[in-house]
Write a structure and sequence with these properties.
This is DUF4249 domain-containing protein. By secondary structure, this protein is mainly beta. The protein has helices spanning 2-21, 253-268, and strands at 38-42, 49-56, 73-78, 81-87, 95-101, 107-113, 119-125, 132-143, 149-160, 168-176, 186-188, 216-218, 226-233, 242-251, 287-290, 293-302. Strands 10, 11, 12, 14 and 16 form a 5-stranded antiparallel sheet that branches.
């Protein structure tokens, strides 16, 4: 149903714009289906079981999230050496490869082969996780979007950025509302990204300034140095017996580009007057992404 809603919004805005501009030409707005493409996703991490996704891309008016591929063969190589060759299970959205537990600096290459001889491939090198050196917290007052003062928890995360190359990061915050309950329920929360690192944009053509890039940033402002990054946890989460898990992800360039272009495409989707955003892919002869990442974590407990 979500895709139908987006199409309806596109059509409504498009014809509304035609009326406002008073255009006298007769214009056609056609939705054309494209040939489905093979989709590959994999996000290898150190010491984690590799997971693969394979499907066909869906048509624009389809209500399916994905269309499965019959008789697909996959091959996974690590550092140029083939590790496994097998059939992709029919009907599976994701398949686990327990035989492969990748390590830092491993290069993972994945190939899909269809029975008609069509093949696609993608590869990535798993990054070294950058460590959280320290995490300090302090109560503070913050003026929210409604202009009211709100008590928040300011978190200052310090990391040591390697100076050998450009580096890409993401900070995620998970919230466990009651650590005394069983089972414990964890949810990812939307924190306030007050640090200037979150404001740096790689693409100056991004016109929607309120696009939330989910805490991704680069080392552009502090390359090769220790840096402290500030963010705020809203008051609504600051209760007794609460726990926060802070994740510092070290991203490959392909993961960073894929995530941010995906978020841009989603934001622009409801504005047909803008050029569509091309979602980054590193898949040869297909779409999707194979992108590595690594993580370090730290915990905050409020008793």
């Amino acid at each position: 149903m979500k895709k139908y809603n987006h199409i309806a919004i596109h059509l409504t805005l498009f014809f509304h714009i035609l009326l406002l501009t008073g255009c006298e030409k007769e214009l056609e707005y056609q939705i054309t289906n494209q040939e489905p493409q093979i989709v590959m996703y994999a996000f290898p991490m150190p010491d984690s079981i590799l997971q693969l996704h394979a499907s066909y891309s869906t048509q624009i008016l389809s209500t399916n999230d994905y269309d499965e591929i019959q008789d697909l063969e996959y091959t996974v190589s690590v550092n140029g050496i083939e590790q496994i060759n097998d059939q992709y299970p029919e009907g599976a959205e994701w398949v686990n490869i327990p035989e492969i537990r990748s390590k830092t600096n491993d290069t993972i290459q994945i190939t899909y082969l269809l029975k008609d001889g069509t093949s696609i491939s993608g590869s990535t090198t798993i990054p070294l996780p950058v460590s959280i050196l320290s995490l300090d917290t302090a109560q503070t007052s913050y003026v929210n979007d409604e202009g009211d003062n709100e008590n928040m928890l300011r978190c200052t995360l310090e990391l040591n950025d390697p100076n050998t190359e450009d580096n890409y990061y993401q900070i995620r915050v998970d919230h466990i509302e009651d650590i005394t309950s069983t089972p414990q329920v964890s949810n990812t929360i939307d924190y306030i990204k007050e640090d200037k690192v979150f404001l740096i944009r790689d693409d100056e053509s991004v016109l929607l300034t309120d696009v939330d890039f989910l805490g991704t940033f680069t080392d552009h402002l502090f390359n090769g140095n220790n840096n402290k990054i500030n963010f705020l946890i809203p008051e609504e989460y600051l209760k007794q017996n609460t726990q926060f898990i802070i994740y510092l992800y070290t991203l490959t360039p392909e993961y960073y580009q894929f995530l941010r272009t995906s978020l841009e495409e989603e934001a622009f989707r409801d504005y047909p007057i803008f050029e569509p955003v091309n979602i980054y892919t590193n898949i040869e002869n297909g779409i999707g992404v194979v992108a590595g990442l690594a993580v370090d974590t730290c915990t905050i407990v409020i008793n």
